[in-house]
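The protein record minuted underneath.
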Amino acid sequence: MIIDNTSLRTRSRSLHGA
């Protein structure tokens, strides 16, 4: 599984947005 900076940022935003 390759995690890009963009993917990590999107995941972080989802966690914070939830």
In short: The helical segments are 5-17. The two ends are 24 Å apart (CA to CA).
